[in-house]
């Protein structure tokens, strides 16, 4: 194994790192440049929908300040920037027969050129939650599979045609679980549909999220099909989906809680990852939902199965899982951060759902690599410091709990790559800027850069300095990659055999996985060798 003190204990030289954002969270200028409304426009303007009553009309004003944002990225020395395109800026009414807005195309085209001029690789998300309002009004958006799949595929095709000469990294969808559950189940995100009549006059939380999830998977898959058949050969890019999913750790070593952790993973991740990478919905979801879970036709399944070139991973925290409760969106498990002995899992963030637990990040990487066997791109990961919004600027800039968070995950990242042999190819911190944090409005700050919303001035926080320095120091430089005299070995695939289908944390004392099999606690020697070769060759 490569010793931590060795100069070779590093990420491969082609490792991609940077920061991420999303169109509606930063652009503002919602009625400028021919943009049509998205479902977040009016939703965020509706009293009671955001915590501070503020909306996305201005956000971080990045539609106007994009050059400044690029300068900021340059100052951090990033290799890449992940951002999303606003569908309704490109096709204001969204549909397959609706006109393309050349002003919107020009905006993104200039932006992409601006990044490339500075040597920054664009990593582009096609859909980060801002569905054109017109499609919701026309046919209820994601609830209408037949319409939305065609409209989304056409939107994707326009993006490939207009930007694909320069964009080589595409993400079709950001976090389908959030789109489905938060938008159509819990009703806290646009379009805000829910069975809870205090929240919404429309919606059925027992059926709609599963229908929406199905449409999202198919839209993703048909867009990938279009890319692979019509663009990939010429443009040479990669395309995949990015899923949210936090690590699930059994509350204790009782069999029902070990099983509960796996059920949590099945719904949080397997709902989308299993069809895309393994070709079917998880058995547990089929059992839990019966005919409320839509079925794929054989023809659809052929398109869905294998429809992502990599595993796109967004993750923030770890949940301790206890069997019980009736929350289907959590696989009928209860989440807590309080251990059986009463201690907390980690440092509490501003939002209730997030605590800092870096070991969970490493365990999740191992779980995903073992189960889905594809290279992993970490496309989001970050922390919101408690009460940061109430702090004076100087204090907010010294964001020690966020620095601590990134110190932990970067250590977990490098351990997973070098020691466990997990093939991770990219890491993006969330977020480049404090921004419009959806239903939280602007009170929850995830930025590594502070934004003063009065002046829109940007100030780097200590965390931005930490992350930039860390990646500069922990990626092999070309000079450090030793020359090879033999043939280059093929890239290793998943080699480490651990708790493949269970939710057991490696560091736990329990010895049985959810499937009743003994959990392997030590790394396989092959994993170490391949990890070593991989790092050594800079692959
Ligand atoms: C989303 C981001 C969001 C972040 C923090 C992710 O789920 O993709 O848009 O700001 O979490 O809540």
TrEMBL record:
GO biological process terms on file: cellulose catabolic process
First-tier enzyme category under EC: hydrolase
Keywords: Carbohydrate metabolism, Cellulose degradation, Glycosidase, Hydrolase, Polysaccharide degradation
Highest taxon of source: Eukaryota
Reactions mediated catalytically: Hydrolysis of terminal, non-reducing beta-D-glucosyl residues with release of beta-D-glucose
Biased composition (Polar residues): 498-512
Organism of provenance: Cristinia sonorae
Function: Plays an important role in cellulose degradation. Shows hydrolytic activity against several glycosidic compounds.
Protein name: beta-glucosidase
């Amino acid at each position: 194994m490569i010793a931590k003190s060795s100069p070779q204990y590093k990420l491969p030289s082609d490792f991609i790192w940077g920061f991420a954002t999303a169109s509606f969270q930063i652009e503002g200028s919602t009625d400028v440049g021919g943009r049509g409304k998205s479902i977040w426009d009016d939703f965020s303007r509706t009293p009671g929908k955001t915590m501070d009553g503020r909306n996305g009309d201005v956000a971080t004003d990045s539609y106007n300040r994009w050059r400044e944002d690029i300068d900021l990225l340059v100052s951090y020395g990033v290799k890449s920037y992940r951002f999303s395109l606003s569908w309704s800026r490109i096709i204001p009414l969204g549909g397959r027969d609706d006109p393309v807005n050349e002003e919107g195309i020009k905006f993104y085209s200039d932006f992409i050129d601006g990044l490339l001029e500075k040597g920054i690789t664009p990593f582009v998300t096609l859909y980060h939650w801002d569905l054109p309002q017109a499609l919701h009004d026309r046919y209820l958006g994601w609830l209408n599979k037949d319409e939305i799949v065609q409209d989304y595929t056409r939107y994707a095709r326009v993006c490939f045609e207009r930007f694909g000469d320069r964009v080589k990294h595409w993400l079709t969808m950001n976090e389908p679980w959030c789109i489905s559950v938060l938008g159509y189940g819990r009703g806290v995100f646009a379009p805000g549909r829910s069975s809870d009549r205090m929240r919404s006059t429309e919606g059925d939380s027992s059926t709609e999220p599963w229908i929406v999830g199905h449409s999202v998977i198919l839209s993703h898959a048909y867009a990938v099909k279009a890319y692979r058949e019509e663009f990939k050969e010429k443009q040479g890019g990669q395309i995949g989906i990015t899923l949210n999913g936090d690590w699930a750790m059994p509350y204790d070593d009782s069999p029902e809680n070990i099983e509960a952790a796996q059920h949590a993973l099945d719904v949080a991740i397997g709902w989308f990852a299993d069809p895309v990478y393994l070709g079917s919905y998880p058995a547990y979801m089929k059992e839990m939902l019966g005919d409320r879970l839509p079925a794929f036709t054989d023809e659809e399944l052929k398109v869905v199965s294998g429809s992502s070139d990599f595993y796109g991973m967004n993750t923030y925290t770890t949940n301790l899982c206890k069997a019980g409760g009736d929350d289907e969106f959590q696989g009928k498990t209860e989440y807590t951060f309080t251990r059986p002995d009463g201690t907390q899992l980690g440092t509490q963030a501003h939002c209730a759902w997030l605590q800092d637990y870096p070991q969970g990040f490493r365990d999740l990487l191992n779980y995903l690599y073992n189960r889905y066997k594809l290279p992993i791109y970490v496309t989001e990961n970050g922390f919101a410091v408690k009460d940061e919004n109430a702090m004076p600027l100087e204090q907010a800039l010294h964001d020690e709990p966020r620095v601590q968070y990134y110190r932990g995950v970067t250590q977990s990242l490098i351990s997973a790559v070098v020691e466990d042999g997990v093939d991770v190819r990219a890491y993006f911190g969330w977020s480049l800027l404090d921004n419009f944090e959806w239903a939280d409005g602007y009170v929850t700050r995830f930025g590594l850069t502070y934004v003063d919303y009065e002046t829109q001035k940007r100030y780097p926080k200590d965390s931005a300095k930490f992350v930039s320095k860390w990646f500069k120091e922990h990626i092999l430089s070309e000079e450090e990659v030793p020359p090879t005299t033999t043939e280059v070995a093929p890239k290793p695939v998943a080699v480490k055999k651990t708790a493949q289908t269970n939710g057991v944390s490696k560091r736990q004392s329990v010895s049985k996985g959810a499937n009743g099999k003994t959990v392997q606690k030590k790394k396989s020697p092959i994993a170490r060798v391949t990890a070593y070769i991989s790092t050594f060759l800079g692959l």
